Amino acid sequence: MSINLIDSEQLHRFLLAASENPSIFTQLNQAFADFVEILKTIFFFPIFGFPIIVLWLIIGGVYFTLRMGFINLRGFTHALAVLTGKYQSSSEDDDEQEGEVSPFQAASTALSATVGLGSIAGSAIAIQMGGPGAVVWMSIAGFLGMSSKFVECTLGQKYRQVKPDGSVAGGPMYYISGGLAELGLRPLGTFLGVLFAIFCVLGAFGAGNMFQANQSYAALAGVLPFIDDRSWFYGLILALLVGVVIIGGISRIGIVTSRLVPIVVLFYITGCLWIILSNWEIIPEAVGIILQGAFSPTALQGGLVGVIVQGFRRAAFSNGAGIGSAAIAHSATRNDQPVREGIVASIEPLVDTLIICNLTAISIVITGVYQSFAAGEASGIQLTAAAFGTVVDWFPTVLAIAVILFAFSNIISWSYYGEQAWMYLFGEGSTLVYKVIFIVFVFLGSIINLGPVLDFSDIMLIAMSVPNLLGCFLLAGKVGDDLKVYMEKLRLERAMAGTSASDAEAGQQEYTGSRKK
C-alpha cells in the first residue's frame, strides 16, 4: 500500500511540474499559434476599415475590369461559344495539339477547386457576419473577379512550359518569373515565383485538402450517426479514392472533374431551386431584405464597410479570383490562344459566386433560418443544412452528399495545383513524394482537429494573391495588347463568316497566337 501511495504522490508531483513547465511540444504549438496570430494581424490589418488583403483583392478586380475594357461583360457570350466547341480547332482534341486537357476539362478542374464548401458555406457565413446584404457585395466581388481570372489564366497559357513528352508546367510561378524577366525584373520575378509556390503548396495541404476532408466528414456524420467516431474509416476511403485519381495526373483529374462537377452543380442547384420555389410567394420579400441590407445595414452588422468586407472576403475564399490557382489548370489546356483561354476562365466566378452562392443565400434568407442563429453559433454548412431541412426532412442528406462530392472534386483539383508548385520548387523527380504526402494529409484531415494548422493554411491560400496580383499588375500591359489583337481577329472572323467558310478559316489561321514560345 505504501508503494502505491508513494507512486501516486510521485505521479501527482510529475503532472504538477509538467503543467507548470510545458513540454517542448506544447511550447512549439503555442509558438506556432502565436505566429499565426501575427500573420492574421498583418494580412487583416485594417485600412479605412478594410482588411489589407481584402482591399488588395478589390483593387485588383477593379483595375483589371477597367484595364481590360469590361472583359467580364463583352467576353461572356464568346466564352460560352468556346465551351460548346464553336471555336474549337481541328486538332484541339488530338495528340498534335500542345496541352493535356480540353478547355472544358480545364474549366471543370478549376471550378471543382472553387465550387466547393466555400460556395455552400461562404454565403451562409457572410449572412451570419454581415447580414443578408453581404450577398450583394459577394456578387459584385464575383463580377470583378471575372476580370482577375481572365488576366491570370491568360498569363498561365502565355507563359506555360510544354515538355518534350507533351506534359505542361504552368501557373503564376512561371508567368511571374518569366514575364518579369522579360521586363528586366528577373530577381523580383524569381523571388515572387518561389514565394507563390511555397504559399501554394501549404495552401494545398491545408485549405485545399485537410479542411475539405474534415468538413465533409462532419457533414456526413451529421446525417449518418453510425459513422460518428469512425472518422478514420471515412478518411481511409477518401484517401484511397483521391489516390486513385491523382496518381494519374492532370489528364485523369480533368476527366473526373469534367464528369463530376456538372452533375454535382446540377444536383445542388436543384435542391436550392426546390427550396426557393416551395416558398415562391416570399421571393420578393427576400430579395427586398437582401437589397436593403446591402445599402442600409444596421450597426450590429458592422455598418456599410463591415457588410462590404464580409461580401468581398467570402467571395475571395469562394471563387479564388486573384489567388492564381485556376491559372495552373488552364495552362494545361490543348489550346494555342492564351486570350481565348482567359475568356473561358472568366466565367468561373460567375458560376461559383453569382449563381451558386446567390442561390444558397436566397435559400437561407427565404426560409428565415439565418435569424435563428447568432453570428458564430453555427457553421456555414449547418446553416445551409437548416435551410434545406425546412422543405423536406431528408433534404440535409442531399446536402451532405453534395458536400462530400464537392469536397472530393476540390481535393483532387488542389492536388494538381500543389503538385505543380512542388515541382517548381523541388523538381519533377520528387512529385511522387508530394502525392504520397498529400494522400496522407487527406486521412489526417479527416481524423484530427485542425486548429491553428487550418488558420495557417487559410492565410497561405489568400497570401497567394500577394505575389500573383503583383505579377499580374506588372504584366497587365502584355495581356491588354494580346486582348486587343485577339478581339480584332475575332471581329474579322465574324465578318468573313458572312463571305465564305474557307476565307474565315484562312483568317483564323492567320493569327499565330501570342503564347510565348
Key structural traits:
517 residues; mainly alpha; Amino acid/polyamine transporter I; two-stranded antiparallel ribbon; 23 helices; disordered N terminus; disordered C terminus
- Estimated helix fraction: over 70%
H/E element sequence: HHEEHHHHHHEEHHHHHHHHHHHHHHH
CATH topology: Amino acid/polyamine transporter I
CATH hierarchy, class: Mainly Alpha
**Which architecture name does CATH use?**
Up-down Bundle
Low-confidence stretches: 1-6, 90-95, 500-517
Rg over CA atoms? 24 Å
Number of strands: 4
Provide the CATH superfamily. Answer: Amino acid/polyamine transporter I
How would you state the average pLDDT, rounded?
77
Task: Figure out the total of helices.
Answer: 23
Note the beta-strand portion: under 5%
The class by helix and strand makeup works out as mainly alpha
Quick one: biggest sheet?
Answer: 2 strands, antiparallel
What general form does the structure show? globular
Strand order of the largest sheet: 1-2
